[in-house]
Amino acid sequence: MIELRRVGPEEFAVSLDAVLDVYTAAMLPPADQLTGRRAIMRGHASYSRFTCLFAERADGRTVGFAYGFHGEPGQWWHGVVRQAITEHDGQARTREWLDDAFELAEVHVHPDYQGKGVGRAMVTGLCAGRLERTAVLSTRDQETAARHLYRSLGFGDLLTGFVFPGGQERYAILGTPLPLAQYV
């Protein structure tokens, strides 16, 4: 049985080895990217209203994690996406989606536990009780299980075919109004 446990920024930071093990199994990144990913995740834990859920087995092993925070100017993802949505759809749409947004930065489940409701439980658990008007995230712009999950929770496309600066892979930027209650 998998249990969800909320952790704060300090516990998250000291648990980065377990977090990166799940991330590596789920995403299969090149090994040379893990040091940078660790630094990014550690930095995210310092953001305003950071919240994280660990999905754990009965023995305490972490098999999934998800976290997010309040999006604000000065955060890299927030700034890049704000500019892209503004260029594509204008200031009004950007303000609608990003001026009061909960940014779901990472949602990952070890492959052995995917397709069992762990990701859904983490996303709905993170979004429950949030005071922001919207939730936003980025995911690979492909028909993946993650994309299907987000759609089933009410997330819709804000941008597709988006390439982050310095990257090559295409992403979709998704958003949904909060609360998610109607999708749970």
Automatic annotation (TrEMBL):
Molecular function GO labels: acyltransferase activity
Domain N-acetyltransferase: 2-184
Chain ranges passing through the membrane: none
PROSITE patterns in UniProt: GNAT
Keywords per UniProt: Acyltransferase, Transferase
Top-level taxon of origin: Bacteria
Gene3D superfamilies according to UniProt: 3.40.630.30
The protein, known as: GNAT family N-acetyltransferase
Organism: Streptosporangium jomthongense
